[in-house]
């Protein structure tokens, strides 16, 4: 059983050598991350767009026996550890019914060693976020009775925004996590395949279909994700566009006119579209 190049002992020895090589590379990567932290200075350490670009590159080049979903999970753990090397950060989650499934999702995405902090409500999560910290909240639906996203409309310019949609992969067996949004005090950056979230403050009699068509007419094809009343008798509407839109895009001002029924429009973040396991080149689930 121990004779020949393909014996179990030989194969186990090869695995040991590969493990040592991977560990050495991880330590070298950590050293580069430390150098980057010094070079960045006060710049934000968390870069969701950059992280997704890395994961998409892995998906494109991925072949072999190991499922792509597992590879993505490993790299997410590496990324979370790398972020922790640059600065301390916490992940805040709501309690109660809103917390259903979010804890496992946050742990899966942000790493086993990341500190998860439960709070009472989604509003507390948004109000607690400081630079460098992250909040995880359930994805909006049209059935929400007390949605959290209108708070982003009134947030300060450098306040919380949506930075990612979780989980980052779709179509993998066993990924039965709920959909959620990650929030942070960061500005969305384009990756080439993005969605943007726009909140419209509209008159009470504004028609949802007309508003969506108006956005589409300005090159911002949009889907309604949620509605909520405004204290002044108007309504908020949350739209998800099919492309990246900067917060200072001039089209937003062109649409905000009395005749349109839109009182104000504000970008409240966005995300790089998740990786579709089935559509990824050479990927196995």
Estimated structural class: alpha/beta
Task: Please name the CATH topology of the largest domain.
Answer: D-Maltodextrin-Binding Protein, domain 2
Q: Helix content range of the residues, please?
A: 25-40%
Number of strands: 11
Beta-strand content estimate: 15-25%
Q: Average pLDDT value?
A: 87
The number of helical segments is: 8
User: How many domains would you count in the coordinates?
Assistant: 2
Order of helices and strands: HHHEHEHEHEEEEHEEHEE
The CATH architecture of the largest domain is 3-Layer(aba) Sandwich
Give the radius of gyration. Answer: 22 Å
The H-level CATH homologous superfamily of the largest domain, spelled out, is Periplasmic binding protein-like II
Q: Tell me the major beta sheet.
A: 5 strands, mixed
Query: What oligomeric state best describes the polypeptide chains here?
Result: single chain
Read across the widest sheet, the strand sequence of neighbours is 2-1-3-6-4
Low-confidence stretches: 281-285
Describe the 3D structure.
The chain has 285 residues and is of the alpha/beta class. The chain folds into two domains: 19-38 and 48-84, no CATH class; 85-276, 3-Layer(aba) Sandwich (D-Maltodextrin-Binding Protein, domain 2), CATH 3.40.190.10. Helices cover 36% and strands 22% of the residues. It is built from eight helices and eleven strands. The strands form three sheets. It has a five-stranded mixed sheet, sandwiched between helices. Strand 1, helix 4 and strand 2 form a beta-alpha-beta unit. The protein is elongated. The model is unreliable at 281-285 (pLDDT under 50).
